[in-house]
Amino acid sequence: MGSKVRVISRNPPVPDELIEGVEYLSGSVTDLDSLHKASVGVDGIFHLAGLVVHSRLPEFQKELYETNVVGTLNVLRAAQKAGCKRVVYASTSGTIGCSPSQQVIGDDAPYCLDVVKNWPYYAGKIESEIKAKQYAVQNGIEFVMMRPSVMLGPGDIRFRSTHFILSFLDGGIPIVPPGGYSFVDVRDAAQAFKSAMEVAKPNSSYLLAADSPTTDQFMTLLSSISGAKKPSVVLPWYLLLPAVRVIDFYNRKIKGEWKSSMDPVRAEMGIHFWSIYAARAQKDLGFSPRPPIQTVTDTVNWIKENRDKYGHPQAAKL
Question: How far is it, in rounded angstroms, from Cα 55 to Cα 316?
Answer without folding.
Answer: 12
